[in-house]
Amino acid sequence: MTWPAPTRRAHETFCTTEGWQQVRNARGQAASHHVTHELQLHDGRILRTRISHPVNRETYGPAMSSHILQEQLDVDQATFWACAQDGKKPDRGMPEPPPQALPVNLVYLLLTQVRLSEAEVAAMSKEEAIARMQQYWTTGS
């Protein structure tokens, strides 16, 4: 499929839709010549991209477009346009929690209030963990 050249506005829309954070320059002020965005990924990487002022409908050339998509946004054309035009966020490989995963607040309470070991908590089902917390709240033990 043939895709149009990305525009500065589509680039900005992509970043906004995916939840990139606008960052400031080294002095804590907004940059005057670029809008800079960062995205923290779950694997620890931080992606960074810059959009020249003004954010408008000007298109990027083929080399610049390729660089932005591959090196800065880490997506292909189809993914870029699905996000910029249709609001579909890229799949960044975010791990899905198991369906019966214990809520983090419950784990924290079991460890700190009930004083169970991590191994004991890890071996509990959700129902067992809730029952154990309820027992602690009603009896204090």
Task: Describe the secondary structure blueprint for this structure.
Layout: H1 8-18, E1 21-23, E2 34-40, E3 46-52, H2 62-73, H3 77-86, H4 104-112, H5 118-122, H6 126-139
Antiparallel strand pairs: 1-2, 2-3
Description of the structure:
The protein is of the alpha+beta class and 141 residues long. The chain is built from 6 helices and 3 strands; from the N terminus they run αβββααααα. A hairpin with a 5-residue loop joins β2 and β3. The chain is elongated.
Characteristics:
141 residues, 2 domains, 3-stranded antiparallel sheet, 6 helices, 3 strands
Uncertain segments of ≥5 residues (pLDDT<50)?
Answer: none
The biggest beta sheet reads: 3 strands, antiparallel
SS class: alpha+beta
How many domains would you count in the coordinates?
A: 2
Indicate the percent of residues in helices: 40-55%
Mean pLDDT: 89
Q: Overall 3D geometry?
A: elongated
Number of strands: 3
Gyration radius over CA:
23 Å
Summarize the entry for a quick read.
By secondary structure, this protein is α+β, with helices and mostly antiparallel strands. Helices cover 43% and strands 12% of the residues. Strands 1-2-3 form a 3-stranded antiparallel sheet.
